[in-house]
Amino acid sequence: MLRDAPGGVNAQGALVAAGLACLCPLRCACYDEILNLSAREAAPRGGVSASSARYALGVLFTVNLFNHVERQILSGVLPFVQQDFALSDAALGALASAFMILYLLGAIPLGILGDRLARPRLIATGVAVWGTATFLSGLSWSYGQLFSARALVGIGEASFGPTATSMVSDLFVKTRRGLVNALFNAAIPLGGAIGVTLGGMVGSRWGWRDAFLLVGLPSLLLAGLTWRLPDPPRGIQDRVTLVAAPPLKQGLLTLARTPTFVTICAVGMLVAFDVGAFNNWLPLYLHRVKGLSVDEASFWFGVLSAAGGLLGVVTGGAVGDLLARRTPAGHLLTIAFGFLLSAPFGMLLLLNDRRLIFLASLFLAVFFLVLYIGSINALIHNVVPPALRATAVAIFVFTVNLGGGALSPFVVGLVSARRRSLQAALLMLPILVFFAGLIALAAASVVGTDVRRMEQEAEPARG
To answer: Rounded CA gap, 395 and 137, in Å?
Structure first.
């Protein structure tokens, strides 16, 4: 049995539980389901205690929050950076792409290590690296220095997502996997919104460099907390007791022969292109095209994406788990219909100039789009063996961002510069989301086969 996290974990777990309850917009639906699930469903033998699991989830949620604050704070200060360094839209887009390219280069190697090393310590090292790099961004006095610092942030963050999600799925029971991952990933829209809003506010008053300095230092404290987290046995919630990572070639072949995994990688590329461009350019779009001030653009983007994002992520996890009890395609159906419903509101956001309508459309477009965040990790973890989960998520992250998110800020900036219209460049995004929804819907027929095969292959290892 793994020991509880040191330092009064029961009290800390209670505080984490209270914090998650306040943050969750579906408190009545998920507080009892997740934070008190141990009263009804005992943890498998050898797993961490309920208080340790809650404490670990709270720490990982907080790390994920700062992860996306530091990732998105650049979007909130783009107008100030552009003015200070006299940059074109293409050069601005390249700053975001620098982060993504280094993030991708590190994703697969660090994901493979996440299936083989102590997960809390690998995560903690990455947190320390990206916090230091964010602080250095605030000390940059040239475009080249800022470009290099943002690239280093990407290397640090590559150690986090795949490894942390595999850890979260081993902390709580399988039947709540979508909702637990949704609570963990609720930090994505919240952190992104805080980053944009904080960047705009601090940049307007004290300068864009101070915004980076402000958010870089807390990561060092979080690195220390993460280092001491308990690491649950891999596959414990799937009742797999003898789990070893397969040779790399065998593991990659297993993933390549899993149709659900291959399909969602293709879907993810379309959506990653959309999300990367949306997060990077929309605050500037609201300022330049819709006529909002920099403060207003950052505020409304932050508030509406945070509200829509939080509600959408948790709803996606809860609905995905509910549907998954009835069909193995439950999580994938949630993802598909979310994309199909998000696309029309995205078009309305871009084409309507009435403030009430385009701001309401922003909220609804985000809400439906991020339904996938609550379900995607649960879907991947349900169709691949436990010993390959960090590797699978790392490959997913690498594939979707290489094909979409890494270049989308630059591509949209380039189209905007050549067409002299940011709106024209952004109009491609809702169309891509709609086609992603159609592909995901078509793939729902293969999920059940992949889930059953994974369970059958794991059977010899069950205790």
So the answer is: 28
Cα–Cα–Cα angle for 229, 234, 240, nearest 5°? 145
Q: How far is CA 385 from the centre of its chain?
A: 21
Q: With contact defined as beta carbons under 8 Å apart, do 162 and 64 qualify? A: no
Helix axes 248-256, 259-288, angle to 10 degrees: 80
Please give the Cα distance from 450 to 333 (Å, whole number): 15
CA angle 320-322-327, nearest 5°?
A: 80
Neighbour-count burial for 161-199, b at 16+ CB within 10 Å, e otherwise:
bbbbbbbbbbbbbbebbbbbbbbbbbbbbbbbbbbbbbb
Q: Tell me which amino acid residue 264 is.
A: I
Instruction: Please give the full DSSP string across 74-131, using - where no structure is assigned.
Output: HHHHHHHHHHHHT--HHHHHHHHHHHHHHHHHHHHHHHHHHTTS-HHHHHHHHHHHHH
Query: Which residues lie closer than 8 Å to 206 by C-beta, 6 or more apart?
Result: none
Domain borders along the chain are: 48-461
State the pLDDT at residue 346. 92
Beta pairing partners, 462? 240
State the pLDDT at residue 363. 94
From the list 60, 100, 320, 290, the residue with the least C-alpha distance to 191 is 60
Note whether 185 and 377 are within 8 A (CB): yes
209-236 tens-digit pLDDT:
888 888 888 888 899 899 989 888 877 7
Q: Which two tokens stand for residue 373?
A: 């965040």
Q: How much of the chain is helix, strand and coil, in % rounded to 5?
A: 80, 0, 20
How far is Cα 272 from Cα 408, in angstroms, rounded to an integer? Answer: 8
pLDDT at 343: 94
What gap in Å lies between CA 287 and CA 295, rounded to an integer?
9
How far is Cα 7 from Cα 109, in angstroms, rounded to an integer?
Answer: 33
**Closest of 183, 169, 171, 176 to residue 2, by C-alpha:** 171
Quick one: pLDDT at residue 124?
Answer: 92
Closest CA to 268 of 403, 125, 157, 85: 403
Spans of the chain below 70 pLDDT = 1-47, 238-246, 405-406, 455-463
| pTM greater than 0.70 (yes/no) | no
Domain over 48-461 is classified CATH 2.60.40.420: no
**CA angle (170, 171, 172) in 5-degree steps:** 100
3-state SS, residue 173: coil
Token readout for 427 is: 């109009």
Quickly tell me which residue has 């605050």 as its tokens.
283
